[in-house]
Amino acid sequence: MLRGEITTAIRRALMQELAAVGYGRLSIEAVARRAGVSKTAIYRRWNSKLDLVLEIVAAAAHGKLPALDTGTLRGDLTLLFQAVAHALRHPLASQIIPDLLAEAARNPSIDATLRQVLHARQQDIGGRLVNRAVQRGELPADTDPDAAIDLIVGPLYWRIAIARLPLTDSYLERLVESVVAGLGATGAVPHPRAAPMAG
Amino acid sequence: MLRGEITTAIRRALMQELAAVGYGRLSIEAVARRAGVSKTAIYRRWNSKLDLVLEIVAAAAHGKLPALDTGTLRGDLTLLFQAVAHALRHPLASQIIPDLLAEAARNPSIDATLRQVLHARQQDIGGRLVNRAVQRGELPADTDPDAAIDLIVGPLYWRIAIARLPLTDSYLERLVESVVAGLGATGAVPHPRAAPMAG
């Protein structure tokens, strides 16, 4: 294998091992075996199991999001929900992230990396979606991007990753309406559906 | 120790071990040592580590909720959010539940128990809070309790357990308004704030 291929094989093997046994039981031996490389090949690249996991989680979290520029808040939310629903079905979300969240309470390095990665992600989405909606006058100018993300991502995360109830198209359509109304509720701009009533 | 005391000591030791090392690394030996009992005392009561963990999670999840009968949806949500915020700071939520969610993808018994416990809990809250709000005319009659719970619990869960950003009183006040607006958005009943505009 070439150098880049070895790194790719190690990363893939790590994700599979993490999903299969979790961080607590993960061994570098098993990752090496699954990747078809020597333990030395892993330790040449990363100092520890922790380093390896943190780098790969950070890389996965920086994966691409859809452009989120449909011209309306409803359109952007619909697109984002589809992307989030897809991402949450990946083992990274259903197994690896819960594992690492549990580890974070025991390990300050995991805690710091997860916080940083998640907050960068929140701010990225906030920057794209919330700020554009504010510019278009769809959301109050004082909308707090972090609070908005809680309202946007929280219900879907709860549904898929925690309650693990089914997701239908009509559920997603209703969720878009709920979130639009919820986001509009705390600011100066009236709820989009309520606006015509005021005329 | 009396029989009941032994059981209590085992339960407490299990929660502490689960929080400290996670399900994957949990050993009955360590639970017995921490509880000050023999391994036999544990195996006399539970067949396996899995049985022990499942019974204790189910018991914890059936802990009491506030009465949620303040007379308004806003009042009930405020009370529920305070209870949820408190519960989510317990190690059960920050460490044990994420661990078990990760295990659930690998273990059908954990998966089934978690689903059952969480769904019973959702329906319990739904029955109290959503149905009363429907009866008072604050929410549409066709409100789906499961979808409502996603919107009610999801943002707070995301904030505390995933993004782990700070929680302030003003955040919680705004979240109540957002959730009330979001819940009212998908049905026939107008948004509470929008109603006066229509007059």
UniProtKB/TrEMBL annotation, chains A, B:
Single annotated GO MF: transcription cis-regulatory region binding
Domain HTH tetR-type: 4-64
DNA-binding region ranges: 27-46
Protein keywords: DNA-binding, Transcription, Transcription regulation
Presence of the UniProt keyword DNA-binding in the record: yes
Cited Pfam families: TetR_C_11, TetR_N
Gene3D superfamilies for the chain: Homeodomain-like, Tetracycline Repressor, domain 2
Keyword Ribosomal protein: no
Annotated protein name in UniProt: TetR/AcrR family transcriptional regulator
Organism: Micromonospora orduensis
Taxonomic placement: Bacteria, Bacillati, Actinomycetota, Actinomycetes, Micromonosporales
